[in-house]
Each structure stands twice: as structure tokens, then as C-alpha cells.
Amino acid sequence: MEYSPLCHSLHAFCSSPVKKKLVLLSIMFLIWVYMLYSCVGYCSTMPSSVADGYRAKEPGSAVGRRTEGGRMDVVSRLLAAPQPWEDVESDYEEPSIRTAASRDLLNNELDADRADEWDEARGAPPRAPQPSAMSSFSNGSGSKKLPQAIIIGVKKGGTRALLEFLRVHPDIRAVGAEPHFFDRNYDNGLEWYRDLMPKTLEGQITMEKTPSYFVTREAPARISAMSRDTKLIVVVRDPVTRAISDYTQTLSKKPDIPSFESLTFKNRTTGLIDTSWSAVQIGIYAKHLDNWLQYFPMEQILFVSGERLISDPAGELGRVQDFLGLKRIITDKHFYFNQTKGFPCLKKAEGSSKPHCLGKTKGRTHPNIHPEVVQRLRDFYRPFNMKFYQMTGHNFGWD
Ligand SMILES: Nc1ncnc2c1ncn2[C@@H]1O[C@H](COP(=O)(O)OS(=O)(=O)O)[C@@H](OP(=O)(O)O)[C@H]1O
């Protein structure tokens, strides 16, 4: 046999039992690292219910770092592994949104006041898969489907709370991020959209929420072209409070913006309201609804009261489950009222044993607005609200 100095030194090294063990341990460690690496790669293709626990969110943070191609690097993925219950806000981008177009999505999200959604996303609750999702995970069954139900609005209405509550239902699978497909990303095509969705099994409903759809002129025709049977959910809230909430969000990002008062009026002396300001415009619900009714019958649209979602979450969730044709699984047993937050929270988030409230950017303190300005806005919205009550057959009690 040819003499090899390498073989010789290896033989000499391995001859001692302690060193043998060391070599064995090193090999085991390498195998473990390899398995971990493979698993992380695999997890990124899991349905969102599973992957949610491993999602990274805030752009720029270590947890959300992405490579040039949009994929998260391995270190980021590992860092994104479930942190012991960070305060979660959920308007974030899912790891699954990582096509070139998702960069636009990210940029779009960061512009104007939608940036809020990113700020609040710091880590998702670790989410163990539900039994159905687990079987889908383990045998690779299930498929991505276009959503059968969409929360289309309204911005600052309570849409995130509704989606997070609905995700507790085992027959609902929802994409956590706002895809903005029917407003900003429509050119990417339906396959791009479908690819964002989590895998579902027969009987499970795929959902997403993008509150800006409600005020997007093209959205009704586009959703109808995808499927005329799509169920639409709108969370509505007193338009005056909604406008202040909207302004508060913008203010938190851009502290130098003009006062609420000066943005509200075209002319302060005449008291003429500036309806071109989006914070005012979004609250003219009757006008936006009219656009939807050109494409969808009223029976296909459910209106959830943003106020009742806070005062009686189980009651509103009951209506939503009925509307979706699901068994009423989410009940008052799932909620508790968190005094500190001032909101109902989940006793157990999906797949976790710990309580879960929305993050710090939900329930920001609103600035004090002069009562006269509030009154002027109330007067402005009143006829539109009345029209809206008439159209929906429901008095939301904002006046
Ligand atoms: N359970 C629970 N927890 C926390 N917050 C709750 C909840 N239910 C409803 N809300 C209200 O939701 C408001 C934010 O609405 P959205 O989630 O639709 O906002 S966004 O458009 O997605 O940015 C948010 O508005 P602000 O209070 O003005 O921040 C909340 O009042």
C-alpha cells in the first residue's frame, strides 16, 4: 500500500478512543447543521400557517433581511425562527412574497402611510400547524388556490384584528401580508397572486385582506373577473374616527405633516371639507359601495362593524363564520379583554398556548381634535352615512 502522510496522521489521530469520539461528534454536528439548513429551506415553501411561525418582517432588520433576488438569506431565516412571543403586528410581508414584483410591493408598502404595516411587524407568534395543515405539510398534499373570500376594507376599520381572529378557524387559511394584487400588482397576473396563497385542503377557505381595495375603482371588475362568487367582507368604522386613526398613522411616520384641522378643510373660514384628502375620501362609504354593487350583489358582501368587533368580537365573528358557510368554531371562549391594550385579544393565537394581542401600532393614542372640527366632519358624513345604512339595511349608529 502506498504511504500517505494524511492517512497516517488520521490513523494516528483516531487510534485514541477520546479522539475517535471527537471525530464522531464532529460528524454528527455536521449532519445536524445540514439537516437544519435543509429544513429551513423547506419551511419557506410551507403553507403560511406553518411558515407564519418563521416569518421575517421588518425590512432592514436582521430578521427580515433579503438577498438581491428577494430570497431571505439563511442567517435571516434562522434569526426569523420563532422568538418567544414577541409583540406581533401582522401587516407584514410573508416570506412567500419574494418575486421581483414583490420588491415593488415592498416599495409600495413603504410609501405614504402604508409604511405602518411594516413598522409593526417584528416577529410572528410561533405557530404550530393545525391538524389539517400538519397533514398537508407532512404528505405534501393541499394546493394553492385563489381566495374565495377577501377582506376588501376599510383602511383602519379593524381589518387586521378580523383576519387574525379568523385565522384561528381550522377551515380558514389566510395570507398574512396584504398582497395589494387588485390595486398595485394586477399586472403580475393571477398565477403570481395564487402563488402568494397558503396551501389549502378540500373544504378550507383561502383568504387575504387588502383594505385599499374598497376604494380602488378597478378592484370590483377585477375581482369579479377572477370569480363572480368571491365573498367580500368590509369592516366599517365611524368615518370620523377612521379619518383620525388614518391621520394618526401618517403622523407617526411623518411628524411634520400639517395639522388634522388644516388638512380637513379646503377653506377653514367657509368650513368647506377637502374631499380630495384620502383620510376624508375613504369614509364616504356609500360612494365606494356603489362601485362594488355594479359587479356584486349585496348578498355577497358582508359588513362587519369595527366598533362591535371591539365590544363584541365573538358576535361579529359569528356573523362572519355564517357568511363564509363555516361552523361557528370561534366563540367568546377565544377572547379576553386586555385592559392595558383596551382591546379584545386572543386567549390563544393560532397554534400557540399564549395570549395574543395586536401590536403597538393598533390602538395608538389619537391626537385631540378640536370638537368643532369633529362636529363639522360629523355633519359632512351624515347624509353619506344615512345612504350607507339604507344601502346595507343596517344602522351602524355613528350619528
Ligand atoms: N382587537 C383589536 N386589537 C387592536 N386593534 C383593534 C382591535 N379591533 C379593532 N381594532 C382597531 O383596528 C384599527 C386598525 O385597523 P386596521 O387593522 O384595519 O388598520 S390597517 O388599515 O390595516 O392599517 C385600530 O385603530 P386605531 O385604534 O386607530 O389604531 C383599532 O382601533
UniProtKB/TrEMBL annotation:
Its EC number is 2.8.2.-. It is a single-pass type II membrane protein. InterPro entries: NST/OST (IPR037359), P-loop_NTPase (IPR027417), Sulfotransferase_dom (IPR000863). One of its GO terms (molecular function) is [heparan sulfate]-glucosamine 3-sulfotransferase activity. Residues 147-382 form the Sulfotransferase domain. Pfam families: Sulfotransfer_1 (PF00685). The active site is at 156 (for sulfotransferase activity). The keyword Hydrolase does not apply. Belongs to the sulfotransferase 1 family. This is Sulfotransferase. It comes from Betta splendens (Siamese fighting fish).
